[in-house]
Write a structure and sequence with these properties.
Elements: E1 9-18, E2 21-31, H1 47-54, E3 62-67, E4 70-72, H2 77-81
């Protein structure tokens, strides 16, 4: 059951390509406050790539991130920590 509030962190249409491979293809995820969230999958499924995007390590991706309903983007990982 989903919470009755809006997602704190929302990612839509996240696509990340490396030379010769598409690591993520139109991934969407909603993270809600007060909920346990898990990203699971096989080796090479893109879990670390997604976390690197959400944490600001990767900036070159397609799609949009939202924090409390507002579009966000990070120039670097330090900015994501703020």
């Amino acid at each position: 059951m989903l919470p009755h509030s809006n997602a704190v962190l929302k990612a839509t249409g996240i696509t990340k390509k490396f030379p010769g491979i598409t690591a993520l293809d139109s991934v969407a995820i909603d993270i809600y406050s007060g909920c346990v969230n898990a990203i699971v999958g096989e080796n090479g499924a893109g879990k670390s790539t997604l976390m690197n995007i959400l944490s600001g390590i990767y900036q070159d991706y397609e799609g949009q991130l939202y924090l409390d309903g507002q579009p966000i983007s990070f120039r670097n990982a330090r900015e994501a920590q703020a």
